[in-house]
Amino acid sequence: MNENGLTTTRRTILKGAAAGAAVSFIPTRFAIGQAAKLKIGLMLPFSGTFASPGVNIAEAFKLRIAENGGKVGGRDVEYIQVDDESAPPKAKDNAAKLITKDKVDVLIGTVHSGVAEAMAAVAREEGTLTICPNAGAGKITGEMCAPNIFRSSFSNWQPAYPCGKVMINDGLKKAVMMSWNYPAGHEATGGFKENFVANGGTVVKEIFLDFPKVEFQAYLTEIASIKPDGVFVFFAGAGALKFIQDYAAAGLQGKIPLYGSGFITDGVLKQAGAAADGIKSTLHYADALDNAMNKKFRPAFKAVANKDADVYAVQGYDAGTMLIKGMDAVKGDIKATKALYAAIAGATIESPRGNFTLGKNHNPVQDIYLRIAKGGEETVLGIAHKALADPGKGCSM
Amino acid sequence: MDTSYLLIQTLNGLQYGFLLFLVASGLTLIFGIMGIINLAHGSFFMIGAYLCYWLAEKTGSLWLAILLGVPISVLVGLVVERFGIVFLYKRDHLYQVLLTYGLILIFNELRAILWGNDVQSVKIPAFLAASIPLTETQAYPIYRLFISFVCLLLAAGLYVVIQRTKLGMTIRAGAANREMVQALGLDINRLFAIVFALGAALAAFAGMVNAPVSSVYPGMGEEILIVSFVVVVIGGLGSIKGAFLGAMMIGMADTFGSVLLPTGSGTVVYAVMALVLLWRPQGLFGRAI
Amino acid sequence: MPALSRPVIALLLLAIAGAALFPLTAETYYLKLMTKIMVLGLFAMSLDFLVGFAGLVSMGHAAFFGVAGYGLAWFANKAGIGALEVSLPAALAITALVALAIGWLSIRTTGVYFIMITLALAQMLFYFFKDQRYWGGTDGMNVFKKPKLAFGDWVLLDLSNRYVLYYTCLALLVLAFLLLLTLLRSPFGRVVVGIKENEGRMRALGYDVARYKLAAFVIAGTLAGLAGYLEVVRSAFINPSHLSWHESGTVLVMVLLGGMGTLWGPVVGALALVMLEDSISSLWDHWLLLMGGFVIAVVLFLPDGIAGLIRSLGRRAPKSEAADD
Amino acid sequence: MTEIVLETRALSRHFGALMAVDDVSIGFEKGEVHAVIGPNGAGKTTLINLLSGELLPSSGSIHFKGQDITRLPANAISHLGIGRSYQKTNIFPRFTVFENCWLGAQSRLPSSFRFFRPASRYDAVRARTERALELCGLSQRAHATAAAMSYGEQRQLEIGMMLATEPELLLLDEPLAGMGAEEAHKVVELIQRLAKDHTIILIEHDMDAVFAVAQRLTVMVNGRVLESGTVEKVRTSKAVQEAYLGEDEAEGEAA
Question: Which domain, by its residues, includes B39?
Answer without folding.
Answer: 3-129+136-217
